[in-house]
Amino acid sequence: MSVQPGLRLTAGLLTIGTWASYAIATPGAYANEHDLYVSLNFGVLTVGVTDYHFPAPGGRKFFNFGNNGRGAHYLEPFVQLTGPASTPFTLFAGFFAYNDPDNSVYLEAQYPFTINGVDLTARVAAVGGKSGFYNTGAVALVKLGLSASRTIPITEQFALPLFVSYILNPNPRVERSYLVFGVTL
Question: Are residues 83 and 40 in the same domain?
Answer without folding.
Answer: yes
